[in-house]
UniProtKB/TrEMBL annotation:
Pfam families: Glycos_transf_2 (PF00535)
Molecular function, one GO term: glycosyltransferase activity
Protein name as it appears in the record: Glycosyltransferase
Source organism, top-level taxon: Bacteria
InterPro entries referenced in this protein's UniProt entry, alphabetically: Glyco_trans_2-like, Nucleotide-diphossugar_trans
UniProt key word Transferase: yes
Gene3D superfamilies reported for this sequence: Spore Coat Polysaccharide Biosynthesis Protein SpsA, Chain A (3.90.550.10)
Organism per entry: Pseudodesulfovibrio cashew
Keyword field: Glycosyltransferase, Transferase
Keyword Transferase found: yes
Length: 307
């Protein structure tokens, strides 16, 4: 089984060196592998950094000028050669046996087409305990260590830093939705969730194994309340995007916004006000996180109303 690793990068110079150093240490599968990196119009030293590793790694470098991670991934699909495609990020450092573990899982689970591996944190700045206790780390940082046992999982549990699909999925015409996912600093989250949910609707199953694992770099600026609340807002946008595009006629609307979104946001705003009187950092930030997500849903509903 030949394996491809596919990643998109935008101005990834700060983390990409550690990631590529990790791939220099991976055990290659017997039938070989290829690392497809799509530069999504980076303006830093990403291109020259990738080129500096070409003598050490089986890199295929591609360039995609259209902004958006999913646009870049769709460009990379055209250069795939392997039987199994590992999809990852430019801030996810592979464990040395990542490739061989995915091969073994894929060969043993012949009825499965979508795979998810373990994502552990690589904190570059230790987070305060109150912050860790305030938020769902899976949503905030795409971490899942200790959350699943080996076996079937729902498509919503597959995480972008460490997943794999059989290439036959792309050969059958499936592509990433370019209207969702990372694109600049403001976007609706949920790229991988949308993709895997769509595949699941066509009969493809998802399987989790903790054996193929990566360490997800969490940078200093990401251990920050403002960054996290923006992340929650983007997550709310992604949830609304899926709701309203998949079942647009199922909601009672007020000015184009589902009424339960408005009610939920009002309740969460009230919870924020009440939490301030507790003087408890964890309670306050949890309420802010939930309120930000609720407001993100309303924002996305308004945005989609005009389309």
């Amino acid at each position: 089984m030949k394996i491809d690793v596919l990643m998109a990068t935008y101005n990834g110079e700060q983390t990409l060196a550690a990631v590529l150093d990790g791939y220099r240490k991976v055990m290659p599968p017997e039938q070989g592998w290829q690392l497809v990196i799509v530069d999504n119009a980076s303006t830093d030293g990403t291109r020259s950094l990738i080129k500096s590793y070409e003598n050490d790694l089986p890199i295929t470098y591609l360039y995609e000028a259209k902004p958006g991670k999913n646009s870049a991934l769709n460009t990379g699909i055209k250069s795939l050669q392997g039987d199994l495609v590992i999809l990852t990020d430019d801030d996810a450092i592979p464990c040395p046996d990542l490739l061989v573990q995915y091969r073994e899982v894929a060969e043993s689970e012949v009825d499965v087409s979508i795979f998810s591996g373990k994502v552990m944190p690589d904190w570059r700045k230790e987070p305060p305990l109150w912050m860790v206790d305030s938020i769902p780390l899976t949503t905030a940082y795409s971490l899942n260590a200790g959350k699943h046992s080996e076996g079937s999982i729902p498509p919503t549990s597959v995480l972008g830093p460490n997943m794999a699909v059989r290439r036959e999925i792309f050969e059958r015409g499936f592509r990433f939705d370019e209207s969702i996912g990372p694109c600049g600093s403001s976007y609706a989250m949920g790229s991988e969730t949308e993709f895997c949910t769509r595949l699941h609707g066509h009969g493809y199953n998802c399987h989790f194994s903790e054996r193929p694992c990566v360490s997800h770099i969490i940078r200093d600026y990401q251990v920050n309340g403002k960054w996290l609340l923006k992340r929650s807002f983007q997550n709310g946008r992604g949830a609304a995007n899926r709701d309203l595009r998949n079942a647009p006629g199922e909601f009672r609307l007020l000015a184009g916004i589902p009424k339960h979104y408005i009610k939920h946001a009002a309740i969460r705003t009230g919870t924020v006000i009440l939490s301030l009187f507790s003087f408890d950092k964890t309670k306050i930030f949890t309420s802010l996180w939930e309120c930000s997500s609720a407001l993100g849903r309303i924002y996305e509903a308004l945005k989609l109303r005009g389309t």
